[in-house]
Input
Amino acid sequence: MIVTFFGSPGAGKGTQAELAAEAFGLYYFSTGEYFRREIREDTLLGREIRGIIEGGNFIADHLVNRVVFGVMDGLPDVLLDGYPRNVPQALSLDAFLDGQGRRMDLAVFLDVPEAEASERLAGRRQCVACGARASMKDETCVACGAELVQRSDDDPAVVHRRFLEYHRETRPLEEHYQDRLVMVDGLGTVEQVHRRVLKAMESWR
Ligand SMILES: [Zn+2]
Output
């Protein structure tokens, strides 16, 4: 089963995608997490993309495609978080999967009003050392004890640009995947939304 999760910035997509992958035994792959780790570990790729991602811009499609196809090659069950993020990427992915006799089974779209999503992003923190997610109430990382910072792509000015990009680039994917699209209301607690996601995915399995 191949599933992709998409939603606006701050829709809780990362958290919900990870929970859903665990529930369905799918390999979880987040392009955002992957590239942030490359930056943190200061790899060659990380150095190349640091400025791009910190400025709230997006990495070139061909580069992202290469990373994702490398991960998906030979993996039967995958949940993609943050990919594809535009129609050209989706077309490349279709061609890649088609070449292996596979296809995207399901696209889950997490829907949260923009005002609510902005508020959530303002309170989001991340560990400088291990990259674990944290909330406003945590003082240090619960996983390793290191310092927490706001993610540079959650800065209000950057968030606004991410919303514009989202509407322009990602929303058209609803149409691309219209025959296998599931819309899930992203309002409520993590547990409430998770239950909705499971119910929606179950009906497609
Ligand atoms: Zn940590």
Q: What stands out?
A: Residues 3 and 79 are 5 Å apart (CA to CA). The two ends are 8 Å apart (CA to CA). The mean pLDDT is 90. The pocket of zinc ion is lined by residues 127, 129-130, 132, 141, 143-144, 146 (CB under 6 Å).
